[in-house]
Amino acid sequence: MLETRNLTVRFGGHVAVDHVSCAFAAGTLTAIVGPNGAGKTTYFNLISGQIAATEGDVLLNEQSLGGMPASSRTRAGLGRAFQLTNLFPNLSVLENVRLAVQAARGGKHLRGLNLWSIWSDHKALSMRAMEVLEAVAMSEQQDKLVANLPHGDQRKLEVALLMALDPLVFMFDEPTAGMSADEAPVILDLIRQLKRDKSKTILLVEHKMDVVRELADRIIVLHNGQLVADGEPNTVIALPVVQEAYLGIAPKEVAP
After folding, report:
1. pLDDT surpasses 80 at 186
2. Neighbour-count burial of 168, counting CB atoms closer than 10 A to its CB (0-12 exposed, 13-18 middle, 19+ buried)
């Protein structure tokens, strides 16, 4: 169970996230929606530790993550995919995933720390990396330099790195942003695959309501940093305040 309690951040006089309390259970995919500037990505950054909270706390399985840097939260079980890819461009596809596998191992190989300092060519790491690449249908690209991959394949690889880390919580911030109509379904298929594991929690920031409607078990809506709606997708999408003010969808565009 991931939980935020009164999570708040202020930048000067601006409250970007305003006392948001929400719990996310394992086995569910929650979509976080709202207009531009609503605080969605900032909320993600607070959860994953990219920015420090002014007030409130983040808990994972009832253990406080407050005050922990992003690397420690990764070790605790939070996995974050960004709007922009976060890969090693001058390494091969296999080397990228192998580093993530090694970072997830116990002992001195602490997940989320300096991956260069824990490099190893151990056979078991390579085998696990290949398993992950097969799961995302990238095994044939294992020797390609990441810098030479098309944008869609780089996004696939970022999901592969998250899978290799084996987090308790997967966090996707607009996973299909910048992707073509041909590329986006591949990423969505990977998220559907992750949903089958009922021990995992998935958070998804997404503007495309067809994607939200299909994938989400639950929707929460942020506006001006505040939580303004929370519930089952069809119920939340049908709210006039969500259709008109927050999602920009006219009522006639929403299926009954």
Report:
1. yes
2. middle
> Is the per-residue pLDDT at 38 higher than 70?
yes
Q: How many domains does the chain have?
A: 1
Nearest-angstrom CA–CA distance, 242 and 187: 26
Q: What is the CATH number of the domain that holds 28?
A: 3.40.50.300
- Domain membership of residue 57 as a residue range: 1-68+198-256
Average pLDDT over residues 198-209: 90
Amino acid type, 235: T
CA distance 65 to 62: 9
Task: Give the other-Cβ count within 10 Å of 143's Cβ.
Answer: 9
Residues 199 and 197: their CA atoms lie apart, in Å, by 5
- Residue bearing tokens 């202020």: 10
How far apart are alpha carbons 28 and 6 in whole angstroms?
A: 22
Task: Tokens for 69, please give them.
Answer: 């840097």
Cα end-to-end distance, the chain, whole Å = 32
Q: Amino acid identity of 29? A: L
Please indicate, yes or no, if residue 131 is contained in any of the structural domains.
Answer: no
User: Nearest Cα to 233, choosing from 31, 23, 20?
Assistant: 31
Give Cβ neighbours of residue 207 (< 8 Å, ≥ 6 apart).
33, 174
- Cβ proximity of 125 and 118 under 8 Å: no
**Whole-model pTM over 0.90:** no
In a domain, 180, yes or no: no
Residue-by-residue DSSP string for 160-199: HHHHHH--SEEEEESTTTT--TTTHHHHHHHHHHHHT-TT
Residue 169: inside a domain: no
12 domain residue, yes or no: yes
Residues near 13 by beta carbon (within 8 Å), at least 6 away in sequence: none
